[in-house]
Amino acid sequence: MIKIATFNVNSVKARLPRLLEWLKSSNPDIVCLQELKCEENAFPFEALLDAGYNSAVYGQKTYNGVAILSKYKIEDVVKGLPDLDANSGIDGAQDLQARYIEAVISFKSGALRVASVYVPNGGGDLNEGEKLEDSKKFIYKIKFLQRLSAHISNISNYDEMQIFGGDYNVACETIDIFDPQKFAGQILFHPQERQKFRELLNVGLIDSYRAKYPQNQAFSWWDYRGNSYTQNKGARIDYLLITPNCADKIIDCDIEDKNVRDQEKASDHCPVCLTIS
What we know:
By secondary structure, this protein is α+β, with helices and mostly antiparallel strands. It has seven helices and 14 strands.
């Protein structure tokens, strides 16, 4: 069995004690981390190696940053979404934000392609009279999701299992957010971003948690404000999206908020985990 997790740590240096505690108690084999908020030279490689994990990192000062941790060998690392053909109309040549890292994890019995994804939030202050969907940050989010779909489509014919874990900053269905009426048309639940998320699934990916638990309402993120966690006013915006050949091997999925999100100086996210045979 292999246990894979995704976790937006909201600053790996600030949350390192919490991260190490969770790694020890949960014992995942592979972890996709997001929102590192540090450059590669400031990443705690030694502390994580002492905990049993190799690390591949794509960092950025103060903002963003993604990593893959693994108990196994990490190979063929790709940092950033590849630039796409100019004819596609989707260009990432000027995108310097550290939001995507991909690698191959090798086992005795085979290999698994894993990516850690940090989709832009897309929100923020709007200019007077400006609509959310016309703002630069929202447009960047939509284009990022388009580029991600295009890249996944490009590698979908590889003969391998693939897992794209990350903070997608989208609650896909009404069951995935505590108050869908309140959030209708707002960031995390805007129709355009939900459509782009569904396009990811239409490439051929499967939402592993929803495949295992079609009717469960469970959240992976709670705002720091307003006692959101204690009142369970959250959203499921962290996913492990998998290829069908991986879905056939699902043993369990879990959202591990207990003893993680409720701890002092915790991230506003909690880990989402998948165990496959």
